[in-house]
Amino acid sequence: MIHTAKFGGIDRLRRRPRFVASGATFDPLSLSPAIWLDAFQQTGYANNANATTATDFSGNSRHFTEASVPPVFKTNVLNGKPGFYFDGTKRLLRSYTGSGTAYSIMAVVNRDDDVFRVLWANGIDPYLGMQTSRRPAFYQGAGVTAGMSCLPVSTTEAMILGMRVTAGTCELFDGKTRVATGATTSSALKVSGLSNLAGFFWSGHMHEVLAFNSRLSDTDWTALANYLRDKWALKDRWRIVLDGDSITAGTGASAPANAWASLLAASLGTDGYHVGNFGISGQTVGNATAGGGPAIYMRLNAATEEYTAGLRTSGNNVLVAWGGTNDLYYGRTAAQAFADFEAYCQGARTAGYKVLAVGMIDRNPTGSWTGAKRTDLNNLCVNAVGMYDAYLDPSDVDARFDDYTSALFADGVHPSDAGHAILASAIETQIRALL
């Protein structure tokens, strides 16, 4: 429903005044958006009314419409401000491909549940949703670009999410922090529409979406993110990045909610924190493929995804780095594993992260892993200079982590529920001390 008024013979949209932060002069129109959907400026809808049209405030009249299954307009859902609510069956569609091979999108959204939902698809067909109830994931086309847990998944939280695209490469962002990169495909812009993963709709609130026919510069991206943060009364959250192997991913816990990463995120909460779990089962610290190890390793993440100093929220990042046991398992020496671990942690610190390094726990001696190699690696880490901001040896917290047959182990390698609970508490204590 769009109301118009005549001004000098020209039809103009009657809307609420654009938001201007106290003392701020930034106006998104200065960046020439191709599309600007904004619940704050939207008029014509009472609370719980069907929003058959989302007005485009860019001046380009690219309004989004849906007659059959439109979202519901909510007048007060985020710090006293409105939003469009999608319940998992609603959509707003418009065919718009944009121009060229470069574009940007930034949005304020609030997810609603723990089932995979399509948030949007634009130009390059990026999807943002949840792969499972345990690990929400960023999708690029039909494949996962980077798994990223936003735990606890049952907690709704307003987020500034976005993407920048240049010549077939997409960068995905949480606010001012890049969290993943990937290749691109082609499709039109949709908001909570059907995707190539047919049948999935997004569920949650959409507050604002801005799309641009260019790749925004770091300066413009930061200015826009700050504007949206202030407008919707959000916070620059501490970003807690967890990286490691199956212990960080949560193996051994009887349920995902009992894994130390999940317990940590639930305890920290989302008010001021965003926990991203990059732990992958079998992952090594360095490239151990020559010794028979997997192709996924932590130093690769450091080079391509994690440490974008120019766009992160400066000073609001902590990396919990925990790796090495698989490196030893696949045949690397303690010295080799340490060299990779040290370089990984130092790279994070150089990018501005505070680093909490965690020492290895015991495990059933298999492959090339031995207790002696574990001890050597831990000793090298303890005595390292400039490698981390804090170091945690789980065995100092509970001596049973020195015995893989104890009740703190589920299978001789991974922690049990009891072990995960102790780790979560100890790691949270270290994180809060760093902050």
Tell me the layout of helices and strands.
Elements: E1 4-7, E2 10-13, E3 35-38, E4 49-50, E5 53-54, E6 64-65, E7 72-78, E8 81-87, E9 92-93, E10 102-111, E11 120-123, E12 126-130, E13 136-140, E14 143-147, E15 158-166, E16 169-174, E17 177-183, E18 187-191, E19 203-212, H1 218-231, E20 238-244, H2 246-249, H3 260-268, E21 273-277, H4 298-306, E22 317-322, H5 325-329, H6 334-350, E23 354-358, H7 371-382, E24 390-392, H8 394-397, H9 417-434
Parallel strand pairs: 20-21, 20-22, 22-23, 23-24
Antiparallel strand pairs: 1-2, 3-19, 4-7, 5-6, 7-8, 8-19, 9-18, 10-15, 10-19, 11-18, 12-13, 13-14, 15-16, 16-17
Helix pairs in contact: 3-9, 4-6, 6-7
Q: How would you describe this structure to a colleague?
A:
The protein is an alpha+beta fold and 435 residues long. It has two domains: 4-14 and 27-231, Jelly Rolls (Sandwich), CATH 2.60.120.200; 238-434, SGNH hydrolase (Rossmann fold, 3-Layer(aba) Sandwich). The chain has nine helices and 24 strands. The strands form six sheets. Strands 3, 4, 7, 8, 10, 15, 16, 17 and 19 form a nine-stranded antiparallel sheet that branches. Strands 21-20-22-23-24 form a five-stranded parallel sheet, sandwiched between helices. α4 packs parallel to α6 (334-350) and α6 packs parallel to α7 (371-382). It is elongated. Mean pLDDT is 76; it is low at 1-16, 113-155, 185-190, 192-200 and 302-313.
